[in-house]
Amino acid sequence: METHQIAIYLGALATGALTGWAIPSATSLAPAITPALALLLYVTFLQIPLTRLVPRPDRFLAAVLIGNFVLAPLAVAAIFPFLPENLAIRTGVLLVLLTPCIDYVIVFSGLAGGASEKLLATTPVLLLAQLILLPAYLFLFLGPDLADLVDPRPFLEAFLFLIVVPLTLAALTQRGKRQAAKAMVPLMAVTLFTVTASQMSALDVGVVQVVPFYAFFLAAMAVAGTALARVFRLDGPESTAVIFSGATRNSLVVLPLALALPSQLAVASVVVVAQTLVELVGMVIFVRVFGDRSPKPRGY
């Protein structure tokens, strides 16, 4: 199954998209996203040596922070003038592209042979940094009116249910490593299907116009991450992890923020959903493109 994992993931995305498009009631799958993602992360954490999860102020951490909080905002600044002149759309794009992923990036990075344990160790730092910096970024791009909209609760809840709980369970059930390795591919396929099917019907023609910007961001951050890894002289697994961290965004966490915006900004949530779907396709491609940089960690 691992030999054909890319085809399986693409098939799950395609099936989910068709299901969401053909069956509007597939939106009822949305509550299953968090449990599916939590289970996937639990299985991922089972395969990571827990002794390596202490964050250290080294070159890897510096590269991750610079990639996410310097280069990523610069990439957003480059595309911002070309975004549709619609405040809701611009708000959605900023919310999602200015917040680095703290959950499934660990899974995708691991599938490509990245240093997942080091990336996992950075999640508390990434979480705290984005909570502090997101209001500042919104102020710079949109002015003071929207800077106060950032609610820390979705971020903290995601960290608790998608990082702390699965990681704790993994620490208590280390004997399940062998079974966990076999479950990775089907669990990833189920997660991709669930996210895509539940969100597909939210898209409309007006929102599709932001898709090229999301694709550009993925490509730009792949290039930036590669350059950053060379500057910091990182090894293969660390380089892969830095590339994935810079490219993946916290869409599933900021979606509640977007949904809580005033009615005149309601489209922002759909803009966030569009990024999720583009990114999932991009991550499958990233696994294929960057997966040959180094041998995969045992279990992937």
From TrEMBL:
Subcellular location: Cell membrane
UniProt cross-references to InterPro entries, sorted A to Z: Arsenical-R_Acr3, BilAc:Na_symport/Acr3, Na+/solute_symporter_sf
Matching Pfam families: SBF
Gene Ontology cellular component list: plasma membrane
Domain of life where this protein originates: Bacteria
Topological type in the membrane: Multi-pass membrane protein
Keywords linked to the UniProt accession: Cell membrane, Membrane, Transmembrane, Transmembrane helix, Transport
Keyword Membrane included in the entry's annotation: yes
GO terms, molecular function: antimonite transmembrane transporter activity; antiporter activity; arsenite transmembrane transporter activity
Primary localization: membrane
Transmembrane stretches, start-end: 7-23, 29-48, 60-83, 89-112, 119-142, 154-172, 184-203, 209-229, 241-261, 267-290
Family: Belongs to the arsenical resistance-3 (ACR3) (TC 2.A.59) family.
Matching PANTHER family: ARSENICAL-RESISTANCE PROTEIN 3, ARSENITE EFFLUX TRANSPORTER
Protein name: Arsenic resistance protein
